[in-house]
Amino acid sequence: MSQAIVLQVNKSVLEKMNNHYSPFKKEQAPPYTLFAAKKGTVTITAYKSGKVLFQGPSAEKEAGNWQASSSTPTAHSTDLKKKTTLPPNFSNWSVIGSDEVGNGSYFGPVTVCAAFVPREKIHPLKKLGVKDSKLLTDSQIRLLAPKIEALIDLRLLTVTPSKYNQIQPKYNVNHMKAVLHNQAIYLLLQQIAPTQPEGILIDQFTPEKNYRRYIKTEVHPVTDNLYFTTKGEHYHIAVAAASIICRAAFLDSLEALSLEAEFPLPSGAGSKSDAIAAKILKKGGLELLGKYAKLHFANTEKAHKLNR
Ligand code: MN
């Protein structure tokens, strides 16, 4: 896998690097760079600002030689694309963020939300406590969701298990998600018009190329100004807000379905889910189970086995 590591070093270290890599220097250095070198499989690009980029299969090892003298606390090993997709200062832009929840849970719906956070709402959202939903408890999420809804424009789509079971045999899961993200974003763009976001950040679940292919045949494909990254909530608060809205809607829906089913439906896809599914199967077969669960999960087969 191609690695890219960025170190921030001071002037004296930069000078040492300049000497160290001089036998490996490329003849031409790109603009704003002090030098560019190729040592073995690693390309080293040093900027006058003290930023030094190591790229290639052994980038991590090469950068490791300088780690102690750099001011970067830990080397970030990421694939190159991730580092380069988002423009500098992106977290302060006016952005539509989109995310989904429920995809990994046997019981309950899939929820998708697109949320628009203009620049001036970034700070108020932070003050509310909006952050990575994985750092929040379920009850914090349920308290936050209505406050977010009161503050910004958003669109939420919920695919019930019954609907999911109809769609899933025809669409693969990523195709379904792409279509849902696109629809939520399109509806939100209509809602906020004539205002336009500076960018649209999708919490990445499939390569960009595939996303674009999946939405090609949609009636209203949104294709401009799209950015993709995993852990999107770390790059813009709009994704964090969307994620909280999705999670709250998922929890509400799971609770409503539990009341209807008269069984406590767990989130996730573990052995607890198998045991409850077995009981529902006994009561009403696949037809009943399909109202509450995503039937193509392996849990369905495990539940059948429990009843044998
Ligand atoms: Mn996500």
From TrEMBL:
Molecular functions per Gene Ontology: magnesium ion binding; RNA binding; RNA-DNA hybrid ribonuclease activity
Taxonomic lineage from the root: Bacteria, Bacillati, Bacillota, Bacilli, Lactobacillales
GO process annotations (BP): DNA replication, removal of RNA primer; mismatch repair
Cofactor stoichiometry and binding remark: Manganese or magnesium. Binds 1 divalent metal ion per monomer in the absence of substrate. May bind a second metal ion after substrate binding.
Residue segments, region Disordered: 63-83
Identification of the protein by name: Ribonuclease HIII
Functional note: Endonuclease that specifically degrades the RNA of RNA-DNA hybrids.
UniProt-listed NCBIfam families: rnhC (TIGR00716)
Family recorded in the similarity comment: Belongs to the RNase HII family. RnhC subfamily.
Gene3D superfamilies: Ribonuclease H-like superfamily/Ribonuclease H, TATA-Binding Protein
Residue ranges annotated for the RNase H type-2 domain, each copy included: 93-308
Keyword Transcription regulation attached: no
Keywords: Cytoplasm, Endonuclease, Hydrolase, Magnesium, Metal-binding, Nuclease
Organism encoding this protein: Vagococcus entomophilus
A Pfam family of this chain: RNase_HII
Reactions this protein catalyses: Endonucleolytic cleavage to 5'-phosphomonoester
GO CC annotation terms, alphabetical: cytoplasm; ribonuclease H2 complex
